Amino acid sequence: MSEFDYDLFVIGAGSGGVRCARMASTYGAKVAVAEEYRVGGTCVIRGCVPKKLMVYASKFAHDFEDSAGFGWSVDEPSFDWSKLISRKDAEIDRLNGLYIKNLERNNVEIIQTRAEIVGPNSVRLLGENRTVSARHILIATGGVPNELHVPGKELMITSNEVFHLEEKPDRVVVVGAGYIALEFACIFHGLGSEVTVLYRGDEILRGFDEDIRTTLHEEMEKRGITIHCHDEVDELTKTDDGIRVKTTAEREIMADQVLCAIGRSPNSNGLGLETAGVEISANGAIKVDEHNRTNVDHIFAVGDVIDRVTLTPVAIREGAALAETFFNGNPTTVDYENIATAVFTQPEIGTVGMTEAEARVAHENLDIYLAKFRPMKNTLAGNDEKMLMKVIVDADNDKVLGCHILGPDSGEMSQLLGIAIKMGATKADFDATMAVHPTAAEELVTMKEPTSRIRKGA
To answer: Right CATH number for 153-262 from 3.40.630.10, 3.40.50.720, 1.20.120.1080, 3.50.50.60?
Structure first.
């Protein structure tokens, strides 16, 4: 008989926690998961999945316009916000149910309450007013939206509330210019809202390649989205006509909704970490080693709460590695290099590897290949939206260091490019690959001469 109630107790039923729980159970561990909201985590419940469904919905208006160039005649289209939200909610309910069934099928106990660590091997279940013991404790509580502390801040919504609006706002101000902010700016614009983006920095989408950032800015403004850099909210006031947004650059903008999307922080408050002696960073991130182990024996953390790479597939990989290491006797770590990712703006972004700025710091000599063109579909449509493809190469060994794409289906391309770059593909490997014609992706294997050469000391 074990001295503990559970071999593994997981706090948080998001992607990383669920994956670790299921795998640990299949390896013979007695596992429980505590979740105070819904099973599936941010990505499934109020993140990537519902957002992508709304992205799909928002693209149709643009497609209706383009179809005329191909001979289609579409009657005046109309959009029903309540129907979209209802269908989206039904899909999220379905996925939530699947997550629950998969946990139950793997003999993982689900406890629907908030949990708090009260000792190195003890967890208090607040909703049930009892304490359980566990040989290992995993914290997988994800992240929470950051708030902007200005007068009238209560008039703003975050990415938590945006999925549950009862009506589509006609005028939206988006505060922030990271991928969440810009994706929702494009969603609302595609669904017919007037959209303004406020960003205090120099250029949108900080951390991405500079050519991608500037080109996305241009294309979003061409579509009709207003972007103000070097500006941020100063005060919000409720009026009869909506919400008056006063900015630090002395603008006044009227809105029906103001979406605050200025990043996310680790969801580590109120978990009893101080009581247990778990070390955290200044921003609340739980400090872990390469095996996701905290400074306290038998307490671990994965996913957004450690603020290492805040992506769903990364959390899943971390949870799997933890289960392999401590429940299957197979020490496993996660490789964080060359992680492909996508931004579902309009146009879309797919990227993997180093940006040009990063490559300039890490490598002596570079060859940069850059192509900017109008995709074939846009020609008959009369659409002048441009596509951008950029390949960054180490000129000393021909290895591809990074690839960045802006345009239709670039997220799908980045997944496959991620395989090639992870394997160490060279520009010669790209060149030796036969083109698929006619596609936009063929540009990746037909760019023969670099558009620029960067040589240190030259």
So the answer is: 3.50.50.60
